[in-house]
Amino acid sequence: MRKEDKNSLIQSVAEVVKSYAHFYIVDIEGLNAEITSKLRRECFGKEVKLMVVKNALLKKALELVEGDFTELHAALKGNSAVLFSNTGNVPAKLIKDFSAKNKKPILKGAYVEQSIYVGEENLDALVAIKSKEELIGDIVALLQSPAKNVISALQSGGNTIHGVLETLSKK
Q1: Bridge partners for 24 per DSSP
Q2: Model confidence over 112-135: pLDDT tens digits?
Q3: One-character DSSP codes across 6-59
Q4: Is the Cα dihedral 127, 125, 134, 146 positive or negative?
Q5: Which domains, and CATH codes, for the chain?
Q6: Are 79 and 28 contacting, i.e. CB atoms less than 8 angstroms apart?
Q7: What is the sign of the dihedral through the CA atoms of 27, 32, 35 and 36?
Q8: Is the pTM of this model over 0.85?
């Protein structure tokens, strides 16, 4: 490959890295064409971009992106594919579900929520990370809880409160 071609490829990979908030580096070596096609379809269905890229090119692309990704250099050995997503836990759930049936992909490293995770042992922690929408839903539910409690108490004890108020007004 000519140097100009490599540079343009590095630039395009860097643009993809910049356009997504999170990425996972996985090992998909040994998957046949049928299983790889299934993985690509599942990624597409969950709005995850799967890209197979050479480790050296990915390393150079990460150098062009703002941030320190040097911890991930240890994960860039052997065959690597990269899963890009704007939701932090979706690729982790996809990896966990798909590898339960096929033994692959194996998590090598990830950049999620401005943190770097290296090694397959972090997969459960990455699955447990809540997305922005899930966190907003939890906060809304917590904020609504006290109001719902007051309303239900007033509705259930409406007759009791009325009786207490009548008794107090007669005295």
Answers
A1: 83, 110
A2: 888 889 988 888 888 888 777 778
A3: HHHHHHHHHHHHHH-SEEEEEE-TT--HHHHHHHHHHHHHTT-EEEE--HHHHH
A4: positive
A5: 3-129 (3.30.70.1730), 133-170 (no CATH)
A6: yes
A7: positive
A8: no
